[in-house]
Amino acid sequence: MIFDVHCDALMKLWQDRSLSFHDGAPLHVTFSGMAEAGIKVQCFAIYVPETVPEEARFTAALEMVDIFFARIVEAFPSVKFVRTKQDIAALKEGEIGAMLTLEGCDAIGANLVKLKTLLRLGVASVGLTWNFPNAVADGAWEKRGAGLTAFGRQVVELLNETKRWADVSHLSERAFWDVIETACFPIASHSNAHRLCPHPRNLTDEQLKALIEKDGMIGINFVPYFLTKDKRRATIADVLRHLDHVCALGGENNVGFGSDFDGITETVSGLETVKQYDQLVNELYKHYSAEQASRFLFGNFYAHLPE
After folding, report:
1. Which residues of the chain fall below pLDDT 70?
2. Distance CA 269, CA 267 (A)
3. Are 138 and 105 in contact (CB under 8 A)?
4. Between the CA of residue 173 and those of 79, 156, 247, what are the distances in Å?
5. By the 8 A CB rule, do 198 and 221 touch?
6. What local confidence, expressed as pLDDT, does residue 106 receive?
7. Residue pLDDT, tens place only, 8-17
8. What angle do CA 297, 300, 301 make, to 5 degrees?
């Protein structure tokens, strides 16, 4: 079983309404691919591109929610909407859980009611920024590097109250530390180790240790330029290096996978789509015990769901 905590298929389906989620060729994540790979839970991110005018972003987010339910959940009888441990535990053999997440709070502006609306619609995890600043905090690419705003602290407090994950992927470093101080349920849905690949989106050892000490989760992603600074094509061995590094910091129970499929144009060799997850699974079982591999693939993220 696999629990993948980040993909951007909703964005692609929103951008091109002609795509087939069943087996659309441009999509990395499809129904047939999930079924073939043994995906048990797939998180689908609401990501509103920066090119969308500010006044249209919340509408775009709602349109993606509609696509999630109409074209993914309701279109395939074996796909079930899930948000909690109980929902996932109720999945029958052959059923796939689809979870809704938010990548960046740009869609809500500075309006807490808009976030409450998305949470009521079933969003289970909230990424506070994309790479740029918004009303909540600064993103990883903002040179100013400011932390959480007063509104941002309200957002994190709401996530605590409603028992939702606060996702630190894409945050500035100062905002990261503010979230670690404030959040009850922090995760990094798709971030790798800065020590192995010094990209601004990756997390330093101090940040990774802080997440582990807070009993948060780290989702290793499959973005080639987050995996290796070498010019060669990234491989599954690079994915395992980042996994090993988090484990070496004491995070064996705090690490899983957040592929970032459909949010990337380049792919890891051997991990071109969700169908190739079996290649990663095979390598995990070569290098780790069956119990460890099972936790990396599914158990750790499942255990860290707030409810």
Report:
1. none
2. 6
3. no
4. 37, 16, 22
5. no
6. 96
7. 999 999 999 9
8. 85
Amino acid 42: pLDDT:
98
pLDDT at 208: 98
Q: What is the pLDDT of residue 150?
A: 98
Q: Would you say 117 and 100 are in contact if contact means Cβ atoms under 8 Å apart?
A: no
* DSSP track, 31-71: HHHHHHHTEEEEEEEE---TTS-GGGHHHHHHHHHHHIIII
254 Cα distance to chain centroid: 14
Rounded Cα–Cα distance for residues 48 and 27 (Å): 17
Q: What is the DSSP letter of 90?
A: T
Query: Which residue shows structure tokens 């696509």?
Result: 67
Report d(CA 139, CA 131) in Å as an integer: 4
Task: Report the C-alpha gap between 216 and 226 in whole angstroms.
Answer: 20
Backbone angles phi, psi at 234, to 5 degrees: -65, 150
Nearest-angstrom CA–CA distance, 273 and 259: 10
Give CA–CA dist 231/266, Å, rounded.
12
Tell me the helices (H) and strands (E) count for the chain, helix number first.
Answer: 13, 9
Residue 21: per-residue pLDDT: 97
Residue 145's pLDDT is what? 87
Give the tens place of pLDDT for each residue, 11-61: 999 999 999 999 988 999 999 999 999 999 999 999 999 999 999 999 999
Give the dihedral sign, CA 35/39/40/46: negative
User: Cα–Cα distances in Å, from 72 out to 60, 98, 215?
Assistant: 17, 8, 32
- How far is residue 280's CA from residue 221's CA, in Å, rounded to a whole number? 12
pLDDT, position 113? 98
